[in-house]
Amino acid sequence: MSRISGHNKASPAARRKARHFAVQALYQWQLAGADLAQIEAEFRTDNDMSKVDMEYFHDILHGVPRDKSLLDEKVSPLLVDRRLDEMTPVELAIVRLGAYEMMRRIDVPYKVVINEAIELAKTFGATDGHKFINGVLDKLAQRERSVEIRGPRS
User: Fold this and answer.
1) What's the pTM?
2) Looking at the Swiss-Prot or TrEMBL record, what is one Pfam family this protein matches (predicted)?
3) pLDDT at residue 87 above 50?
4) Distance between CA 52 and CA 55 in Å, rounded?
5) For the chain, is the Cβ count within 10 Å smaller at the N or the C terminus?
6) Distance CA 145, CA 139 (A)
């Protein structure tokens, strides 16, 4: 379970940068299976992380691999005509990151999770990959964040 206290202090831009680097780090982890601490150390050394929410980067980078089985189990039925192993490594990293935020980071509104994943897909993914990711995460939100989607009852 993620720690939530103190997470609201970071700016949206610092969180966006954390996600940006986390997708790249998760991609590296998926392809090479490298040690997470080593990947994190390389990112801290090789990139300007001064404007990155480092706590969030760390949480995503370590949380997604830790919860990989659960995330894959929740996402697989939502893929419609594809399987996880048919997704590109970039799409898989983005979907897992979005699923992690959707399920473990309830401090982040579901619309933000989806929008950020779409932007990551537009940056790193194939031409229409963002549409696929949007569809998967929207379905996941319906299942995992139904109370938030319905909103407060009057």
Assistant:
1) 0.90
2) NusB
3) yes
4) 9
5) C
6) 10
